Amino acid sequence: MGGGSGEGRHRAWNDHKQRGMTHTIVRGYAAAAEALIGPYEAVATAEVLAPVIDLLPVEPSRIADIGAGTGRDAAWLAEEGHRVTAVEPVAPFRLAGQKLHRRLSIDWLDDRLPDLGTLRTRGPFDMALLNGVWQHLDSDAQEDAMRSLVGILRPGGLAVLSLRHGPGAADRPVFPIDTHETLKNAEAEGFAVLRAEERGSIQSVNRAAGVTWTWVALLRG
Fold this sequence. Notes:
The chain has eight helices and seven strands, in the order ααβαβαβαβαβαβαβ. It has 221 residues and is an alpha/beta fold.
């Protein structure tokens, strides 16, 4: 068998594996949604985004909030005057967000990493926010997702990612994130690294569990 066939089988297996893992994670979040919605909404977006808030667009911009959850951050961005597309595969979160933030003009979309196939048709965007989602992708899917970010952003667009380090819930598996490899993958896709800053968690439960974050800002070439 040729090398190309082997690579194709490897890619197909990885795609199958990630689809199965994504289904497990979405199902886990859906089962826990009732308990998570209140705590998600109780956290102030300005505090969450503090490590990168000075880099966010000032002029009204098109922003994709990928893994938007209940739309807390999407709502804050909309209130700042931006046109926001909230991408969330967990139906209970989407429904809660549409209800909680119904006075705001937020475009809700059922799509998911790493492909973002539907979101690609809505672009290009000036900025993409990925807050607390990268840890649910294995290393192969992280590479695919980085390529997807190139596909949805305009040249000069900004990608903001929070990389979680530490344990997760048993029913919502997480993968280790190598910050150095993530930045190397980003640069390989033509991104310039504007910032990579480590921070502790602002949530006491996560702090007690030893969870930390790296906030990354990338500029698309």
